[in-house]
Every structure is written in C-alpha cells, then in structure tokens.
Amino acid sequence: MSRITVAKRLVFHVGGYDPITPHAGAHRRFVREIRRFELTWSVKASIDALHDGADETKWRVITSGANWHVETDFRLIRWDDVIEKFSRRTIWYRIPLGVIAFLDFVTAGALWGYLRTNWHYAAFFIYPFITLGTLVAIVFFVGIWTLHASESIPANIIIGAALAALVLGSLRWLHLDSLFDDWIFSRTYVRWGNSIIEQRLDRIAQEIVSVARGSDADELLVVGHSLGAVIAVDLLDRALKLDPSLGRNGIPVTFLSIGSSILKIGLHRGAERFRAAVEHVAQAPGIFWGDYQARIDIMNFYGTDPMAEMSLSTEHGPVVRLVEFSRTLERAMYRRIRLKFYRVHCQFISGNDRRAPYDYFMLVCGPVSAKCQTVAADGALSMIGDDGALINKLECSEWLSEPARPVA
C-alpha cells in the first residue's frame, strides 16, 4: 500500500531544449524559485552546493514544516552539451537544416496532428518558418526597389549588407536560431537518434535500476519537462529493459511529464521507436505516470490524451491533470508573463505565488508523494495546513479508489 508521506525522495529531472539556461543556471533558478515555495506554503528549505558530473548535476534539498522533514536528492540529467553543439553551427548551416526539418515534420503528418490536437501548438510549430519567410520576402522586395531606385552600385551594396545584417539580427532577437535548432534536433532524434544522449541514458538507466533496488528513499521520481519528457520516456524504457520489475520491487517509481512535448515527437509518422517506448512505459505495472498540461502554454498539448492521439492502447496511460497558471500566480505576475510564451512554459518548473493543486516544488520536495498529489483532486491543498504542517496522513489508497479528475 502506498503511503501518502515521504521522508526521502530521489529525483531525476530532465529539462527541455533550453539553450538559455545551462546546468549551473538551472541550479540558480532552482534556488531562486524555491524561495517562493517557502513563502507560499509556510515551509523552510535549504540547498547545498552544486555537484557537477558529466551525466548529471546534483544537489541536495532539505525541506521542513511544523511536523515533517524531507530530504531530496535532486539530479538534473545533463544534455546542455548536446544543445550547445547544435548552437555552435553557423546560421547559414542552421537555416537550411531548419527548413528541411520543417518539411520533414509536415510530410510525416506531424503538422496535421498538431492542427487536429492543439492548433496553438501548430502555430508554435510554423511560427519560426513563417517569420523567416516574411523576413526574406521583405529583404527581397526592398532590395528590388533599391536596385531600381538607385543607380549607385556602392549604395546598393551598403543597403544589401544592412538588410542582411538586419535579418541575422532578427533571427537572434526573435530566437529563431534556437527554434530552428530545436526542430533540427527533433528530426535527428526521430530519424537517427543522438549517440551522446543514448549513451548517457544507458548509464543513467543502470543507475536508476541500481538505486531503485538499494536506496532507502521512499519515492523515486522521474520528471520530464517539455522535450525533456521525451527523453525521460526513453530513459524509463531503457531502465525497464534492464529490470522489468522496476517500481514493483524496491522504491515506488513515479513519472511526471510536465508541459510535455511527447506528442511533438509521437505524432511524427517515423517515430515508431519512440511510440513503442511510450507504450512500454505506460504498460509498466510498477510505474505511475502523471501528465500535467496547461491551457495558456502554447508549447504543450492541452486537453489531450497522449496515448489516444498516438493511436496507442488507452487501457494503460497517464493520469492527465489540467493546470490553470492564473490560479497559481498573483494577478500582476500573471498579466506580466502571459504573453511571454517561453516564460509561461517555464512556469511548470517555477515557484507559485498561491497554493494550488499543481506546484513543482511541492511535487519534488514536499512531504506528500508525487503520486498521491497527482491522484488527489486538489493535490496537496487539503494535506498542508496554513502553518505548513502536514494535517492529513491518510493512506494513498483513499485517493486511488476515486476516479481521477482534471486539476483546474
């Protein structure tokens, strides 16, 4: 029987395609955002220094309330080196590769899948390519006009160079270069995989199997944010191949996909290997899967059943929870960020201003198991008192016996 409370938790977090925040920056953001968690839930938290490695960046978190104490071993799975490798390519190399990736996802049926499941994500998909086409068209027509309006060859050369510089500057200012890299990587991942990531996942899968058998933690939590949810599925699939009984013998295993890009890859016709991995993880009896989706976030698939959309069996699949960020943030903060799409997407891994059923830091550092928070209709709201004390120590089975309902 799963208990609702935990005293020790082991977390493996896989971040998204984030060229802005490498591993050291992720630690700083974690430290900053957990302070909001302390204020919101009337708890205390301390974090030790970052311990860096080739595969993981680790830190230890201690959180406490009036009548509870939790130690969290937090491990951020690194793939910033892969992202950096893509970003070092010249823009002249990345633009054609990005266009090829766009055409690949269109012809492989992914764009139609995005339109069918969530038109907001379809808009996010076509945005960089439409914007690039618009910039090129502007440069072309301005160049033609300048050529006819001026007979001065030096003037035409100067204007042409200025227009080219304007396009290149716009690509970076609008983050089009990073978005191209994201889709280039995604196409590579679907078609051929990435040897650096695959070798790393093999090593971490062995680590997960080892600690699941021998650690004294109460919960092993794997979190995948954005495109990191895709990599987390791949990781758990590899761990299950090493130990099919993962989660049944030893530490309970919970998988949370938050702001997930699983359908970004899964709706590509060529992603058979990935869809098989999703089905393998979903059917694993020892792994509980919760999927959190937010309406305002155009970079995830809101209101969808990922298994059904990929034409996979829905007999086993995630407990889907719908999140409203407007209820987690103060009104002024929400109004400030609601049109900043990347910042909204990062709210999945940021602190809340208000107590709500979804709270990233409560899930990874709180005294209530992530599984029970996901299954309970109101998350940890009814389990934590105004003073931060744990006020409900019932067994998790009481929530498991109720049908899962979306979080709003």
Our count of domains comes out at 2
Compute the gyration radius: what is it?
Answer: 23 Å
> Strand content of the residues, in percent?
5-15%
Q: Biggest sheet, in brief?
A: 9 strands, mixed
Mean pLDDT: 89
- Oligomeric form of this entry? single chain
Q: Outline, from the CA principal axes? A: globular
Structure annotation, total helices:
17
Instruction: Output the structural class.
Output: alpha/beta
Q: What can you see in these coordinates?
A:
By secondary structure, this protein is of the alpha/beta class. The chain folds into two domains: 8-73 and 217-400, no CATH class; 87-188, no CATH class. The protein is built from 17 helices and nine strands. It has helices spanning 23-41, 80-87, 91-107, 110-117, 119-149, 153-173, 176-191, 195-214, 228-242, 262-266, 272-283, 306-309, 331-337, 341-346, 360-365, 370-375, 397-400; strands spanning 8-14, 44-47, 51-52, 56-65, 68-77, 219-225, 253-258, 287-294, 319-323. Strands 1, 2, 3, 4, 5, 6, 7, 8 and 9 form a nine-stranded mixed β-sheet that branches. Strand 3 and strand 4 form a beta hairpin. Helix 8 crosses helix 9 (228-242) and helix 9 crosses helix 11 (272-283). The radius of gyration is 23 Å and the shape is globular. Residues 401-408 have low confidence and may be disordered.
